[in-house]
């Protein structure tokens, strides 16, 4: 299938404010962006939950990685709206809108875990040929190191993750 090339990529860190690897990388790339830039592409490092990062806590009011659903994204902004819902709307405005042709092509959402799973890629759609080929490339580039791929696909579930704004959402967990 002939698809348009990937031109806009975002790298998210700090979706959970106490997961610091992505935070450190995003801050590094905000200051030293040359190492992630490629000709013909826009690569944007982005700190997703700055208030939670500042407090070094998972979230302020609710989990940012669970509020990219239609109800939260369409919620009227009022004073009592949870911080992460407001932040999700801002992120959707910058990198989306979710499900549209204008959405970023790819979002890498960098996380940490205390599970002994090493570097693991997260796939939300087994029919996303581009992401599957990209994972294949990454796994081969890292060989002989192990890089498991976790498929979290459910036929009736629309994902409300931070990365789900992109046409090709990718989660990366590191312990």
Automatic annotation (TrEMBL):
The protein's matches in CDD domains, at most eight in alphabetical order, are given as: M14_ASPA
Query: SUPFAM superfamilies of this UniProt entry?
Result: Zn-dependent exopeptidases
Cofactor(s) the protein needs: Zn(2+)
Q: Which UniProt keywords apply?
A: Cytoplasm, Hydrolase, Metal-binding, Zinc
Q: Which family does it belong to?
A: Belongs to the AspA/AstE family. Aspartoacylase subfamily.
Database matches in InterPro entries: AspA/AstE_fam, AstE_AspA_cat
Q: What's one Pfam family here?
A: AstE_AspA_cat
Enumerate the subcellular locations listed in this protein's record, separating them with semicolons: Cytoplasm
Q: Point out the gene that encodes the protein.
A: Aspa_1
Query: Mind naming one GO cellular-component term on file for this protein?
Result: cytosol
Query: GO MF terms on file?
Result: hydrolase activity, acting on carbon-nitrogen (but not peptide) bonds, in linear amides; hydrolase activity, acting on ester bonds; metal ion binding
Query: What's the protein called, per UniProt?
Result: ACY2 Aspartoacylase
Which intervals hold domain Succinylglutamate desuccinylase/Aspartoacylase catalytic?
A: 6-169
């Amino acid at each position: 299938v002939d698809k348009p090339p990937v031109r806009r990529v975002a790298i998210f860190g700090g979706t959970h404010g106490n997961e610091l690897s992505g935070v450190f990388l995003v801050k590094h790339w905000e200051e030293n962006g040359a190492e992630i830039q490629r000709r013909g592409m826009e690569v944007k490092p982005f700190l997703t939950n700055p208030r939670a990062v500042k407090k070094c806590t998972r979230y302020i009011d609710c989990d940012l990685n669970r509020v990219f659903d239609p109800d939260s994204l369409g919620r009227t902004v009022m004073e009592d709206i949870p911080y992460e819902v407001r932040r999700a709307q801002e992120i959707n405005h910058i990198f989306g809108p979710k499900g549209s042709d204008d959405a970023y092509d790819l979002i890498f959402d960098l996380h940490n875990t205390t599970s002994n799973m090493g570097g693991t890629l997260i796939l939300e759609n087994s029919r996303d040929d581009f992401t599957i080929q990209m994972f294949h490339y990454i796994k081969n580039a890292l060989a002989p190191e192990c890089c498991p791929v976790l498929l979290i696909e459910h036929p009736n579930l629309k994902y409300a993750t931070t990365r789900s704004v992109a046409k090709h959402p990718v989660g990366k967990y590191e312990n």
